[in-house]
Amino acid sequence: MKKLSVLCFIGGTEDGFDNGAGSEQRYLFALAEMLAYYGHEVTCVGNSHNGEERPKWGDTTPIPGIKFIHMREVDFLNRAYDLAIVSENIIHWRCDGQPIQTPCPLFEYVAKKVAHPLFGWAGTGLDCVTERTADNTHFVFQPFEPLVMRQGDAVINYPVWKDAPADNLEGRDTLVWSCKDVYHDDWKEDHNFHYGGLKILKALKRLETEHSIRSVFINSEKFNGKRATRMGAKAIFDSLEKKEAHTGLIRKSVLDAAFKRARVSTIVQGYFSSAFSAPAAGAVPLYFNDHGGTIWHPDQIIMSMWDSEEVFYRKLERFFIDDSYYLERRDKGLEVIKKFHFAESHKSFLRFAEKVGLNA
After folding, report:
1. Rounded distance between C-alpha atoms, residue 88 and residue 11, angstroms
2. Quick one: which of 120, 63, 65 has its CA closest to 87?
3. From the centroid of its chain, how far is CA 40?
4. pTM, two decimal places
5. Rg from Cα positions in the chain
6. Of the candidates 254, 264, 256, which has an alpha carbon nearest to the alpha carbon of residue 211?
7. Strands (E), the chain
8. Fewer CB within 10 Å of terminal CB in the chain, N or C?
9. Which residues contact 32 (CB under 8 A, 6 or more apart)?
10. Going by C-beta distance under 8 Å and a sequence separation of 6 or more, which residues neighbour residue 44?
11. Sheet-wide strand order for 174-177
């Protein structure tokens, strides 16, 4: 296997790869870690929060094989890398107090190939890719099979896990609410998942009362809105006594810690970091069978928004009172994400490298 030199634009961080980041940035962190794990030479370009310095590892442990540099250190006169991974059309950065913009086509002078990680749902993507894919210079890759594949598109599976989660049955007394914006007020009408979320909240309150089940809310700010108040979600949320509530983007270590003590995680389809991290840490992702767009196998979708409140409660309760059932569902979750194991992700990267001519 040929070891490749990879330049990866990661944006700003002062907490290494434990930065409170969105899904796409965490995908880049995970790719960089996976590539370094398999011996590729990885250089991550980005900045600190002030924009003037290199990214920082902060209180995290630096990952062997990964070097941090600032954009000012990129040599655009020397094609030193096999591959440049760039997630934006234009890189915005600062030097000596001045804002600078670097268009992604300039990375053709830095690397043999330029690749863009996208979560484009229907194969949509960067303008430069549309214009430059034909000359085999720029390519799109995505974390799983997209709905539509175009010329130049590829899949590099999201590298989520290396080791199976511990059972830790006695310590798994938590339900994680991973739905960040279910009750935001931008929706013009109430939808099924608003009512489904309400049933989960009611079941959670009952689980807390009858079984001392704890809860972690990854993002709770939407419970302060008009919809949450009108539908009664805010009142139930406020009444929970054993909850841990976060707002905004949280560090990955906090998210992972929550999933490691959880048996269930409620997720709206398409929230990638939570959707992948939950089963990798042993929490069963709870999907609804009438909300489209899921990446999961149908066997993993075990709730219906049309179930009664009592059915919601009994289904959730079973995860906490029936260890065998929880372990069965957990193992099915791991089966679903097996292609997001580091080893499988690396295989998909090598297929991509061969496709674009980097293994020759």
Report:
1. 10
2. 120
3. 23
4. 0.89
5. 22
6. 264
7. 5-12, 41-47, 66-70, 81-85, 90-95, 98-103, 111-117, 138-142, 153-155, 174-177, 214-217, 243-245, 262-266, 284-286
8. C
9. 6, 8, 10, 17, 42, 44, 63, 66
10. 7, 8, 9, 10, 32, 55, 66, 67, 68, 69
11. 243-245, 214-217, 174-177, 262-266, 284-286
Give the per-residue pLDDT at 123.
Answer: 41
36, 65 contact by CB (below 8 A): yes
Under 8 Å between Cβ of 68 and 46: yes
**Angle of CA points 174, 273, 139, to nearest 5°:** 170
Residue type, 251: R
Q: Which two tokens stand for residue 329?
A: 């569902």
DSSP, residue by residue, 37-93: HTT-EEEEEEE-TTSSS----TTSPPPTTEEEEEGGG--TTS--EEEEE--SSEEEE
Q: pLDDT of the chain along its 360 residues, tens only? A: 789 999 999 999 999 999 888 778 888 999 999 999 999 999 999 998 888 899 999 999 999 999 999 999 999 999 999 999 998 777 888 888 888 888 888 999 999 999 888 764 434 445 555 555 556 778 888 887 765 555 556 889 999 999 999 999 999 999 999 876 678 888 888 877 788 889 999 999 999 999 999 999 988 888 989 999 999 999 999 999 999 999 878 898 998 999 999 999 986 554 555 677 888 999 998 876 555 445 555 556 677 778 899 999 999 999 999 999 999 999 988 888 899 999 999 999 999 999 888 975
How do 98-103 and 90-95 pair as beta strands? antiparallel
How many residues are present in the chain?
360
